[in-house]
Amino acid sequence: MGTKSFCLLIVSVLLAYYVYTPIPENMEERWKLMLIDASFRTLSHMAELAERLGLVHYMEVLMMITNMEYTAPISDENVTVTDTEFNNVPARLYVPRKQSSGLKRAVIYIHGGGWCVGGSAMEPYDLLSRWTATKLNAVVVSVEYRLAPMYHFPVQFEDVYTVVRFFLQSSVLAQYGVDPNRICISGDSAGGNLAAAVTQQLLDDDQVKIKLKIQALLYPALQTLDLDLPSYKDNENTPILPKSLMVRFWSEYFTTDSSLYEAMASNKHVPAESNHLFRFVNWSSLLPEDFKKDHVYTSPIYGSSSLGKKYPGFLEPRAAPLLVDDSKLRGLPLTYVLTCQHDVLRDDGIMYVSRLREAGIEVIHNHIEDAIHGALMFITSPTDLALGHRVANKYIEWLNMNL
Ligand SMILES: *[C@@H]1O[C@H](CO)[C@@H](O)[C@H](O)[C@H]1NC(C)=O
Ligand SMILES: *[C@@H]1O[C@H](CO)[C@@H](O)[C@H](O)[C@H]1NC(C)=O
What we know:
CATH topology of the domain at 66-223 and 314-402: Rossmann fold
Number of helices: 16
GO cellular component, one term: membrane
Structural class: alpha/beta
InterPro entries: AB_hydrolase_3, AB_hydrolase_fold, Arylacetamide_deacetylase, GDXG_lipolytic_enzyme, Lipase_GDXG_put_SER_AS
Strand content: 15-25%
Keywords: Disulfide bond, Hydrolase, Signal
GO molecular function: carboxylic ester hydrolase activity
CATH class of the domain at 66-223 and 314-402: Alpha Beta
Largest sheet: 8 strands, mixed
Family: Belongs to the 'GDXG' lipolytic enzyme family.
Order of helices and strands: HHHEEEHEHHEHEHHHHHHHEHEH
Bound molecules: 2-acetamido-2-deoxy-beta-D-glucopyranose
Shape: globular
Distance between the termini: 66 Å
């Protein structure tokens, strides 16, 4: 065999290794999904290598996607788009152009990206906000909160909270012609986490008189305690968000110290002093049978108390909204939860649905059987999937009917 054909063989084997990944059986557009996943994995491996060589932080390499997908704030025939600031926190603002006599609805949108990457100006997020503004004739505020590893918890939470608090003032709403009774907060993934946390925090804030009508949580991350839920086990290597990346996002939210990552990766990060919190994320009692399948519930294994003392954030409801008791849940607004079957975060969303319903909150749960995590990101060419459009339409239609 000549050198050239040998090289070709090696390249083909490597490519096949990258392209071939078990795609869940009920998914459509399998080839496209394999290629998208292969490019993600390549980038992730490059990031690992670069980090090991001491060149850059892992997340700086992943951030390349966010930067590549940056779009300027360009107004179109339906929406005026501007980059602005609310109380010094940047946000992208979408105001519908259509003249209407009455007040408008509003959606505060919190983008995903594991608290480390992503941005309101990324093409898919920008498009989703335009669609929302156009179809609902609503004002959309898409928050540009600060990211890890430069900023850790609670900076992300506080940036979002600052914008929400500022926007929910009568004078500000009046300026944009927004109806104070028709405001929603929405977010996907880490953004769903921030939306849920902020909505809980508002319940205790006497200074904010205007209430949110709806929270919409799109495949949200809601708990840090058990990173071995059935959905984590079933989707350890599922495209877009493997378990290792989710654990990395979680640990990076609190610190770049790799000891937290390692403890979380083996699910031994919660100190014994916090064992009372496990009942809030007990999948044995909170998951419907369909999702438990053959998984066997085992008692938690505790970690050292020093991690909990050094990084107490990961035991707080502001980071893990499932960690509150029922009395706190009772004040929450109408909630829309979207979960995907092939997603490590699936059970976070489902357990929140169970907890909210037990607390008497009205919840609309939309579970998509043939979806992966991050489905809403796949709505722009060349990485658009029919799935992305379907999920986006479902969410926006529900909002249109209920907000
Ligand atoms: C503006 O809205 C109309 C009606 O919803 C739609 O058909 C059109 O594509 C929108 N324009 C842009 C640039 O999105
Ligand atoms: C979780 O729920 C099961 C019953 O479904 C119970 O046996 C177990 O003790 C609970 N564990 C915790 C930590 O609450």
